[in-house]
Amino acid sequence: MFELKWVYELILLLYGLSLIGYFIDFVQTNRKANRTAFWLLSMVWVLQTFFLLTQVFIDKNLPIMTVYDGLYFYAWILVTFSLIINRLFRVDFLVFFTNVVGFLVVLIHLSTRAQNDLKDHGVELVNEMLVVHISLAIISYGFFTLSFIFSIMYLLQYRLLKKKKWNAKLFRLGDLTKLDHFSYISVILGVPLLLIAIILGVTWGYISPDTFYWYDSKTLGSFLVLFVYIVYLVLRVVKGYQGRSISIFNSGAFLFLLINFFLFGSLSNFHF
Predict the structure, then answer these.
(1) For a 10 Å CB count at each end of the chain, is N or C smaller?
(2) What's one GO BP annotation on this UniProt entry (predicted)?
(3) CA distances from 22 to 4, 19, 91, 236 (A)
(4) Tell me: the pLDDT tens digits for 6-54?
(5) pLDDT reading at 248 higher than 80
(6) pTM for this structure?
């Protein structure tokens, strides 16, 4: 059954991309992102339904008799509800967080089933999950770094304008509005990637034979970094903060990210 490995990976990839799309729509009310996320999630539902019907009609097994089979049926229900709600109603908050829970449930079920059904390939899938966890976390840090650079450029440009220093540097830094917008977009892209990375990391820790420490400094630090950048989005989207004040907050958030990466990482029991 090793050929199923790529199907499991495809489901997780489609679900992860869908989650990013729903997050962008949740923050920006972006209908294009919502439609893309809906069709990606629909593909996940088709694949899940295929496996479900295979178990019922070919394997003669109703997938509710064990805990892990129940997880699969539960995940299928969540995806189904999410698609219906997204299609018939406009409840972005509910749709996004339903998909976060659904992604976690699918991840636990598929990785556990892979270990049981795919033998060595299941172990390989779990190890790949760790690689993806680390990769997505680093990519998200890359977006947060870009956001920080845009914020610093904004603050420098703001200072030059305040002092009325009309020189070549002023024009090379770029427009204040664009710098503020690019900084915001970078955070929007970084947050869902870090969220997915954390979900992957927690799931890996749950199913891996290695010891997982909830109270590990890097684990707690990653949750705090995510929280800080969510606070940034709340201040930006809900409270309407823009310009200099949010750029200062973003710069502080990046300093905390550096503390988590270098200091907490060096104190961690299993992170690098």
Answers:
(1) C
(2) cytochrome complex assembly
(3) 27, 5, 11, 18
(4) 777 788 889 989 999 988 888 888 889 889 999 999 999 998 888 888 8
(5) yes
(6) 0.74
